[in-house]
Give the backbone structure.
Amino acid sequence: MTEKTHIVGLTREELAEKLKEHGFEAFRAKQIWHWIYHRGVTDFAQMTTIAKKQQSLLAEHFTVGRPGIARQLTSFDNTRKWLLEFEDGNKAETVFIPEEDRGALCVSSQVGCTLTCSFCHTGTQKLVRNLSAGEIIGQVMIARDGLEEWSRPREDCLFTNIVLMGMGEPLFNYDNVARALRIIMDMEGIAISKRKITLSTSGVVPMIRRVGEELGVNLAISLHAVRDELRDVLVPLNKKYPIAELLEACRTYPAANNARRITFEYVMLKGVNDSDADAHELVRLLRNIHAKVNLIPWNPWPGAPYETSTDERIAAFARIVNDAGYSSPVRTPRGRDIFAACGQLKSDSERKKGEKVWLGDQPGA
């Protein structure tokens, strides 16, 4: 048996070339693209604009797969989490967070993480491997399946936004992330606008400008501290790319403007980074940056060495930042009861002994 080609993750051009190898006309690529990414079809026999003989030929040489669902959980607040299993048995989590008139899917880019941020549960799991473009897109397709939104008019869909804030550091898997996002943003397919996609990074400084120039998506920075000596502990990548370098990259981010501000994520840790002095220093650091601040009450996990700041302390911190002219909403914890909240994602996948992990050509990999 010849190994079948996975269509999900191929670019339009690659799909057309693969189809040509099996005698298909060029226009079939557009038809198949529409069926897969606009209609959510996984069975070639359902592609009614294609003759049955050609449907059989497609099924012989190609597959339109999805990750397997190892476990699916729904929170009391209707947050949904899927533990997805890929072909090699590795697993990653993805989370859908519904709001009243919209909803965001929190997408993973790696199995595990290489960054070991001390407040983050994912950081306690060593990096296993990067996710492929198809596996990243597969998370989006699983969510659309689960929400039954393929056949609905787009204006009636609850799944409207994507945040690359799941397991892993997206900029240490840039090539696959960029390929996946280009397919997701294609307006003849899944069609999620770059204005509704946010990529979150812990601060891989040399890659930030490239994201703005090549993808133009919204940028979020996992900042969490205003002094290098503390950020070195909370976000160890800071030792390589300290705060001053990170903020300079943000000041020159090509996709940022007053209407599309960079989001600075700031997890609130009791007695660690939540003082009035920290808030005033944060305001000083953000000067001349199109910025807003998301204050995130820390979400606990077993064995963690931190506590969540009190509501009163978070409110006082937010007031200082707001008074300085920076929007600073406090993120309402979602899905804590199913470990789906920010910083709680993790799977049981482990790297095999001696296995190497390719992180791409980008600096810092």
Q: What stands out?
A: The first helix runs from residue 12 to 21.
